[in-house]
Amino acid sequence: MSGLTWKDELGDRIPEDLGREIDIFETEIELRSQDKLDETLFAETRLRRGVYGQRYDNGQRFDGTETQQLAYPAALTKGPNTMWHAPGMQRIKIPFGGLSVEQMEVLADLGEEVSDSILHVTTRQDIQLHYVHIEDTPDMMRRLAAVGITTREACGNSVRNVTACPLAGVCNTESFDVTPYSRALARFLLGHEDMQDFGRKFKIAFSGCRHEACGLTNMHDLGALGVTRMVDGVEKRGFEVWVGGGLGAVPHQAKLFDEFVSEEELLPLAQAIGRVFARLGEKRNRARARVKFLIAKLGIEEFKRLVLEERQQLPHDDRWTSYLDHLDETDEEPLKPGQALHGADQPEGFEAWHETNVYRQRQTGHVVVTVYLPLGDLTSNQMRSLASISQRYVKDTVRLTVEQNVVLRWISEADLPALYSELNAIGLGGAAAGTIVDITACPGTDTCKLGISSSRGLAGELRRRLAERYHTLDAAVQDLRIKISGCFNSCGQHHAADIGFYGISRKINGLTVPHFQVILGGRWKDNAGSFGLPMAAVPSKNIPAVVERLAERFIGERQQAENFQDYIGRIGKREVKAILDDLAQVPTYEEDPSFYRDWGDVREYTIDDMGKGECAGEVVPLAQFELTAAEREAFEAQILLDEGDAGGAYSTACGAMVQAARALVRTQFLDVGDDAERIIEEFRTRFVDTELFFDPFAKDKFARYLFRNHEEPLTNPSAEDAHRTIEEAQLFIEGAFACYGRISDAEGTLAGS
Asked: Do residues 550 and 579 lie in contact, with contact meaning Cβ atoms separated by under 8 Å?
């Protein structure tokens, strides 16, 4: 910057409203440092500014190749309950994933100056910086605001980053470019007073076409699919609106709200939905505080009625339609005219890269290039170089993707060999984007307090093995999607993958062993058209063998034109389990100690460094986390019953009740262990005999479900027996959630007095 500071260059460009927000936050940091601001309150306020507490493990970070030592003091980095001012994660919202050259340069500078020089692209088209000291965040936020980027409401109980198809405007199958609409809605809802009282987060996505994985509208609280309709002989733009989708422990497919919402009604409808969610959505029981649960409770028709009623009561806002006069502001123009590649000289590796990383856009002579980012990471130097490359080839037409990559749009075909060489020179010329090699993974145990197994470590290992064999793989498996989450919260979008994994742990021979639950049969296409189902728990060490075996069986047994999802559906869960049974076995420590270590870590595996998660705004207690796990088990019991496995459904439902009882017991007796007999004994003593668990109307009825199924287990349960027990499990779990809520309320009252 020619010796000038960022304030000299950018200081007068900070929007007044964002500047005021940042000033307030800076004051709150100072108050917290003086112990004049309660930690719980401060946690919520920093989360609403995108400042997220992260996990530490003695200052180590696995980068996909090796474990790095980080230069942070041990006093601030050791253990799950790090101090509030320990270096944390900063999430930066990038609406629709669009970045300008100037924004990329500022991000590169900040990565170097306040972080570890690694910028992480998320599955919501955000950028995350890790190991950021909180005292550095206000100035960082100001620099971002000056170039049109905010961290406001990037985390917490808020409207998260609004995502959109990265090909919007250049896609061959889209109805129209959804970019200006996603930008308008993001701007309208940012800081909106009607969007500040949610019990949990609210996610929005836009897609321009129905049959691709553009915006994944089926897995969002609000999904907007661009459609057109003839009205009085004129083609009218609008949106097919879907509501109540979501992943997490219990995934829900979105439900159709309206087949056609006009472009004029898009913003006020979103506002009305937000108001209904704020008013009627769960606030106390945070595991139920999403739109999907509100719709499940009310029914889609009643939810729609309430929203439309709310819409009629809204006072008019000019912003609802004023943006329609400026739709062309997001239009892009090519830097160079489109020219065919013809027979230009091609550098080594170009052909393979061209095959997987280049998409021919609908504008003749121009293409889109996907810059493949292993693990979703690029360095500050790579970001700065990418900005420079963008200036020479495509102007400001760079977008982040939900698969953690970067796309460059409007590239003249004739420039592809030169562009590939430049990308290769900065370590970003990797091929196989959008293939089985291009694995999505959340940060997992590297930095997330809720991470159970190393999603990044596993992703790095799978990527290495698959990349070596990619060109020898059968075409039927080359384009399968693999997605990995470090826990069941699905930040890695494992439910929408052909092959998905989420981290779990198991006690084996008295030791804790990292495992992954195998999820199969999800559909990435059709905007995440269907979700996969859990199949088996397999130790982390054997997951590469799971992928290899499933691929081999699919290639050998698939029927004509059968895709992987249909194949898994045809052979069924029982057969899949048989395929994987031997891989689920764990040898003793003496036989093979590597099973007792996680990928990328030479130390013995432990979950003792798990902490309280912050994904939902207010810190999530571990008890609530475990209750959600019990709910997931009840869900899996229903799946088993649907597949005809009454015995498996019955035992899983019983196990779900024991899991929920354990969650409650651990609020008083953390070290209760995993023995069902001990858990039930402690639950009876601590919660039933004391009447803590008593429902105001049902009294101890739900507890008796647990006791009866434990004391008088059925040896050969029928489908009817299993169905009844699943219902009992669901009631018991609901009772456990309610009991925990009463305990939390009582503790809050005592703390207040």
From this structure: yes
